[in-house]
Every structure is written in structure tokens, then in C-alpha cells.
Write a structure and sequence with these properties.
Its main location: membrane. With 135 residues, the protein is mainly α. The protein is built from 5 helices and no strands.
């Protein structure tokens, strides 16, 4: 409860500050920052309460996912800009550019998480393999 209160207060303070500089984007950024703080506080509280719970693997997987997401975002952003420039700014052109950029970004993310051997991907692959073999 204390962690949630701290996170909420930080969110309000950051929202008031960042909305002046960044507009609505500041609200989203403030919420993201306060959520990250809340996650850290909850991790610390859980570790104090129960000891080791596999947080090393959780942090490792989270960092791999974060890195993949950042690269996906960069690729998607530049793909959209390039496709918009090539295809044009008509409504249909924007729809095609956006759809294509999202597809490219999702493909990049999928490739990265497979290459980085994220545990959950390996679990899904093994379960799919069992389903396919059972048919």
C-alpha cells in the first residue's frame, strides 16, 4: 500500500511538471516513470519479505525485452517515416505506411527475442512443438 501511495504521489508531481514541457506526452512519460519506480519498490519489498525469488532471471529477461522493444521502436519509427515519404501522405498512403511499419516492427521484435533466447519464447516453442507432434 505504501509503494502504491509513493508511486501515485510521484506520478502526480511528475505529471504536473512534465505536462508543462511536453504536453500530453508528459503525462504518459510521468506515468511510465512512476510505474517503473513502483515495480522497483515492489521488487525490494518482495525480496525483504520472502528472500530470493528468481529476480535475477526476471531482471535479465526484462532487460532483453526492453532492449528488443527499444530497437523495435526505433526501426518502426524510421520505417514509418521512410514509407510515408515514399508512399505519400494521403489517407490510404498513411494507412499503408503505418500498417507496414507496425508489421516490420513486430517482425524485428520477434527476431530479436528469438535470437536473445528469452525463456518464455523457449517455453512457447517447446509447447508448440509438443502440440504439433501430438497431431
Amino acid at each position: 500500500m505504501i509503494n502504491g501511495a509513493i508511486s501515485m504521489i510521484l506520478n502526480i508531481i511528475l505529471s504536473l511538471i512534465l505536462v508543462k514541457f511536453m504536453g500530453h506526452n508528459g503525462l504518459a512519460f510521468a506515468t511510465s516513470l512512476s510505474s517503473i519506480l513502483c515495480i522497483i519498490l515492489l521488487f525490494v519489498s518482495l525480496k525483504k519479505k520472502i528472500g530470493y525469488f528468481g529476480q535475477d532471471n526476471i531482471i535479465k529477461t526484462s532487460l532483453k525485452s526492453l532492449g528488443s522493444a527499444i530497437l523495435m521502436g526505433i526501426v518502426t519509427f524510421y520505417s514509418y517515416n521512410q514509407l510515408s515519404y515514399i508512399i505519400g501522405s494521403s489517407t490510404v498512403g498513411q494507412i499503408i505506411s503505418l500498417g507496414s511499419a507496425v508489421f516490420i516492427g513486430a517482425l524485428v521484435y520477434l527476431i530479436l527475442i528469438v535470437l536473445l533466447k528469452i525463456d518464455e519464447v523457449e517455453i512457447i516453442k517447446s509447447k508448440l512443438k509438443k502440440v504439433i507432434e501430438s497431431k
